[in-house]
Amino acid sequence: MMCPSCKLENPLSAMMCDCGYRFVPGSEISNGGLTAHAVPLQVDPGSLYLRSIAASVDSIRKMILFWIVASIAAGVVWGLIVVYQGAKQQEIMKTLQDREPERPRR
Ligand SMILES: [Zn+2]
Predict the structure, then answer these.
(1) Claim to verify: residue 51 and residue 32 sit in the same structural domain
(2) What distance in angstroms lies between residue 36's CA and the mean position of ligand 1's atoms?
(3) What's this model's pTM, rounded to 2 decimal places?
(4) CA of residue 27 to ligand 1 center, whole Å
(5) In the 8-state DSSP scheme, what is residue 22?
(6) Is residue 106 in a domain?
(7) How many A from CA of 30 to the centre of ligand 1?
(8) Which DSSP category does 24 fall into?
(9) What burial letters (b/e) apply to 25-41, b meaning 16+ CB within 10 Å?
């Protein structure tokens, strides 16, 4: 790779150029020209943190929305079950009432 400071070609394994330029990101900054490269490295973890907060807020919002939808759906299902069971019970009571007079005959 080429040193951006002195344009000298260095082996890929080289950690540091002869001029003092360090290739490893995040390491000591000895060159003023490196600050431009160093700034995004310093800002990135913060923006990543903010992004993760935004992502978690988004997931919480999705979870709340899911719970609202789920509770509404559960309420609707519960209501249907109650209505269905009520109708079924009435049906059972009706059939029992219909059958009861038949029993003494047999
Ligand atoms: Zn160099």
Answers:
(1) no
(2) 16
(3) 0.36
(4) 15
(5) B
(6) no
(7) 11
(8) S
(9) eeeeeebeebeeeeeee
Residues with CB under 5 A from ligand 1 (ion): 3, 5-6, 8, 17, 19, 21
Is residue 105, in this structure, part of any structural domain at all? no
Residues in the chain: 106
CA of residue 9 to ligand 1 center, whole Å: 8
Tell me the residue type at 106: R
Cα–Cα distance measured from residue 78 to residue 82, given in angstroms and rounded to the nearest whole number: 6
**15-34 pLDDT, tens per residue?**
889 898 888 765 444 554 44
Give the number of domains in the chain.
2
Interval between CA 3 and ligand 1 midpoint (Å): 5
